[in-house]
Amino acid sequence: MDLAALGLLVDTEGWDLLASLPAYDAGAELGLQTRLREAGYAPELVSAALLQSQLRARAQDKFGTFADAMLFTVDGLEQATRFAVAARHAARYLRAEVRLVHDLGCGIGADAMAFAGLDLAVRAVDADAVTATVAGVNLRHWPAAQVVHGRAEDVVLPTGEEATHTGVWLDPARRLDGPSDARGRARRVVSLDRISPTWRDVQGYAAQVRATGAKLAPAFPHAARPEDAEAQWVSWRGDVVECAVWWGPLVETAGRTATVLRPGSDAVTLTESDAEGAEPPLESLGALGGYLYEPDRAVVRAGLTGALARLVGGAELDDGVGYVSAAAPLDVPWAHRYTVVEAMPWNVKAVRGWLRSRAVGRLTIKKRGVSLEPEAVRRQLRLSGSSEATVVLTRVAGQTVAVMVDPAW
């Protein structure tokens, strides 16, 4: 979407057309497009309105009914913070007695909307003109929220006493300009030196304004966390959606933390202290207990699997694999529990024989900490039969193992 198409949408005729469209139906889109053009609407307006209708339908998962009154770009929607997470960001600034937040790299305005919704003043900026305009539309209900088109690096921030009740929020761009991938999306960058603003620049903002937070990728390296800062990995429905780094009064627990969010359930936050004193990893496969636990991915990303080991009275199978063995079946809301059926060192012939003896033709393969590829393993096992099974491929004491489990929990 370009500025011309966006201008058509925010015009009175375009906005009224968008409001009149039925719920998005991919199968009916072509017919609706034809009818709208026959009704006299300009083709450019019809295309822009139907794209927004499609994006609003996709946005329901992140924004709920708020999506029905918002505008989106394709990349902006994909990268936007979902409201349940943005609300938690905003609450940190409110608890820290911040009154004004500079949202540098605001995208379509998801976090800025959460800030404004808690009566915080917002000064938002985005380097892309279309995205900044979309954010302005989405923030139109909050007079204390302002959006401008510009670079985060050019924003002049307060210093000293003037910064006492001021906060900074950054969501550095993690996609490259230029050729896109097979799905038409800009390519992602991994290096902290290639995000924009760079990680060095982000830390510079934190040095200037103490109440600074930054949304980074889940692959954020543990060693990059600044001293006294909090790096929090956050998951939603089991998917890790971000690693947010917090400085100054926004820090709730310094170090690495993990927050697990699930609809209808209370948030669970784990810290490094929760993992202290955990038993060392298993010394042999023979020490494997009757139950296998798999913590939420945010817990694994944060390196806090020890918290699960302590809770269930067990031990991690091997350093960093994220699976925990225990003798007792406990209900842990942020972990899956499996009953161990059989365990053996990884050997294609032995595992194939075990599966064939039980007529297993459908096999769920889970893996972590090993280089085996599930599809290659499936071909090697040459499955046949009508039964189902689940196997976990992982490590115990440095050895690749196959653990057959029953996912009943």
What's the gist of this structure?
This protein is of the alpha/beta class.
Topology, please?
Elements: H1 3-10, H2 12-20, H3 29-38, H4 43-63, H5 74-79, H6 83-95, E1 100-104, H7 110-117, E2 121-126, H8 129-138, E3 145-149, E4 166-170, E5 175-180, E6 186-188, H9 199-208, E7 211-216, E8 230-236, E9 239-246, E10 255-261, E11 268-271, H10 272-275, E12 291-295, H11 297-301, H12 305-312, E13 315-316, E14 324-326, E15 335-345, H13 348-356, E16 360-367, H14 374-381, E17 387-396, E18 399-406
Parallel strand pairs: 1-2, 1-4, 2-3, 4-7, 8-10, 16-17
Antiparallel strand pairs: 5-6, 7-9, 8-9, 10-11, 12-14, 12-15, 13-14, 15-18, 17-18
Helix pairs in contact: 1-4, 3-4, 6-7
Q: Could you characterize the architecture of this molecule?
A:
This protein folds into three domains: 3-72, no CATH class; 79-266, Vaccinia Virus protein VP39 (Rossmann fold); 285-406, 2-Layer Sandwich (VC0802-like), CATH 3.30.2130. It is 32% helix and 27% strand. The protein has 14 helices and 18 strands. The chain has a nine-stranded mixed beta sheet with strand order 3-2-1-4-7-9-8-10-11. Helix 1 (3-10) crosses helix 4. The chain is globular and about 70 Å long. The relative contact order is 0.07.
Largest sheet: 9 strands, mixed
Number of strands: 18
From the alpha-carbon coordinates, what is the Rg to the nearest angstrom? 25 Å
Under the CATH scheme, which class of the largest domain?
Answer: Alpha Beta
Low-confidence stretches: none
Dominant shape: globular
Count up the domains: 3
> What structural class results from the helix and strand content?
alpha/beta
Contiguous helical run count: 14
What is the fold-level CATH name, i.e. the topology of the largest domain? Rossmann fold
Across the major sheet, the strand order is 3-2-1-4-7-9-8-10-11
What is the CA-CA span between the terminal residues?
A: 47 Å
From the coordinates shown, what is the CATH architecture of the largest domain?
Answer: 3-Layer(aba) Sandwich
> Strand portion, in percent?
25-35%
Q: Which percent range fits the helix content?
A: 25-40%
Please name the fourth-level CATH homologous superfamily of the largest domain: Vaccinia Virus protein VP39
